[in-house]
Structure formats: structure tokens, C-alpha cells
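User
Class, as today's exercise, I want you to study this protein, comparing sequence with C-alpha cells, and judge whether sequence predicts the C-alpha cells.
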Amino acid sequence: MVGNAKCKVKKVVLAYSGGLDTSVILKWLQETYRCEVVTFTADLGQGEELEPARKKAEMFGIKEIYIDDLRDEFVRDYVFPMFRANALYEGVYLLGTSIARPLIAKRQIEIARETGADAVAHGATGKGNDQVRFELAYYALNPDIKVIAPWREWDLTSRTTLIQYAEKHQIPVPKDKRGEAPFSVDANLLHISAEGKVLEDPGQEPPDYVYSRTVDPMDAPDKPTVVEIAFERGDPVAVDGRKLGPAALLTRLNELGGANGIGRVDLVENRFVGMKSRGVYETPGGTILAVAHRAIESITLDREACHLKDELMPRYSSLIYNGFWFAPEREMLQALIDKSQEMVSGTVRLKLYKGNVMVTGRESPYSLYSLAHVTFEEDAVYDQRDAEGFIKLNALRLRLAKRRDG
């Protein structure tokens, strides 16, 4: 956004965490754009106290302060639909950061409408994926919204200059931020991620202190934890026979997974903007859920439906990773995925042990598993002689090609 455009902004909704970066952004918006600022802080289960964000915003003279508990909406309307697809980015990443961005962006646009704001702002840098995710969502929901991305505009290009700006404007600087932070953290109810600084060399093992949600698998209990998860139409609804709401259910699985060292991933991924980055992720409950969902699908999904889902999954995962949650192709894929889940109901039993999730049983009233057909004992439902014609028909093109080619 160029200089003359800055004068046109009357009111902006800022995605505000209350941390150093977004506090500096808040003051910078007031100074640079001379506009009214509305702060929005989303509780997505990051595990931090959010009231300090309100007090900080009040310190800046902010009159309209939104702090919204979005935990159930996050899990019900974003995490669960994604898990119905068994989504994994590049075969490993459970998309914990990616899936949170469209909800934050949606609520920002709603607040802009409620408050009469003509702009939104975020604290994502110009090197990462989040700027793309936020802004694609903004434009998909309001094509005419103005977007302010301070990290692409200002000249505060280092931690030192950021702290200097904060001190100049009497913005409190947490003591642990005076100097280079050891790594950057993003957290919500699905996962916690760490990137940068001590993690930038992908050849070096992450220090133990990087991990905060899971015990070291080698220090996990020597006795396995048995857990049973009930599903209805592809979504988990109960743990160990106890019905739970979306956020409470994921919280419970996080507790069980974290105590057993489950869900650690050390990944070098391909960012949408073109570079590779190294991240360390902890997704304890999500890892359990991913294994359990595949297990219930294994007995309830038709073979070709299952295989089609697996073919589409990488495309679906990339759409989420790259920020296209509100794109028509993601919604089309979601409709197909949700159709496949109509009979994906039942229970899965698992053992959690030192970083491992092991399926030990699965049951469903809609099971397609037929013991009568697969038994090695004598049966009256399957004529083994039928296989001969099946094989010959499938071999026909192979035999013709070989005869032609010699």
C-alpha cells in the first residue's frame, strides 16, 4: 500500500496477540495511518492468558477490543473437516498452523463489518506462508477490503530496531525478548510449532527445550495407555465412552498423547512462497485422531472410495497449506469427502506407548468387513474358481502386449 492509500484508511481491525510484534504494529498503525484501530484476539486454545492483551490494548487507547473464544468453532468447523480427509501436507505435517488462519481471517472480516472498518492488518512476515493464508482469506470473504501488512511496509527490519521502537513509545518489552529469541512459536488447540534461530540448521537435532506439549518418548510411561474413540459420520464424539464437545475432546486427546510422547515431527517443508524451512511440530491429540480415523475408515469405506480419497488428499492438503480454504475447489473436495463419511461411524481402540499409536481393534454397525468371505476355513459364500476368469480378463491386455512385443 503506497503513501496516498494510507490516508484513506479510517479504521483497521488488527489480529492482535498482545505480544511485542503486534503491540509495535498497533502503535505503528496509529502513527503511520492516523486511523482508528480495533484489536481482535482469538482464543484458539493456545494455552496463554488473554486478558493481558486487553489491558495492553487499553493502554494504547483502543476503544473496541474483541477477545473471542473460538475453540469449539475451530475444532468443529475447521479441524474436524480436515481430519475427515486424513489431510497430511508432504506426508507428515498435520497442518496445525495452516488450518487456524482462515478462522482468524473470517472473524476479522466479520468484526470489520460490525465496526465499520475499511481495513484489516496482520503480523505475518513477508517471508512466510501466513501472509498468503490471511490475505487470500480476506479477499475471498471481502473482495474490497484494504489489507495492511506492516512487515512488508516498515523499516523495522530486525529484533533490535523493533525493541528500540517499543522502548521509544513506552511499549513493555518482555525480558525474554531482549535479545535474540531462541525460536519462534505458534500454538493452538491442535498443535504447537517452533521455527527459526536454533532450529535453522536442519542437520542439528532440536534441543530438548523446544518441546513443550509432549514428554520425551524415551521418558514416557513403561505401561501403554489404552484409549477408545467413538466416531459418528467421520467425526470423533467420545473418548473412553464419555461424550465430549469438539474442543474438550481434542483437549483430552492432547493430554493422553502428550503424556505418552506422541506427535513430535521434525520437518523440512516447502513453503508456498518458494523456500524450504525447518519446523518442529507437536500434535499429540491430532496424531491419535489421524490414526483412529483411518482405522474406522478401513472397515466402513468402500475400496474405491477409500483409494479416491487417498488420491485427492495431497491436493486437498496443499490447498489448506497454501491458504485456499475458502476457494471453490476446496469446498468441492470437502463435499466429496463429507459424502464419503456418511457410514464412517463406530469405535476404535488404541494403545499409546512411547511415541507410538497402535490400533488394537475397530468395530462399526456399518462395517464392510465380512469374516465369511475372508476366512481361511471352508465357506459357502465365495467360489474360488471365479478368480480364474477374473485373473484371465485382467491379464488379457498384458498377454496381447507381450505377444506383440515379443
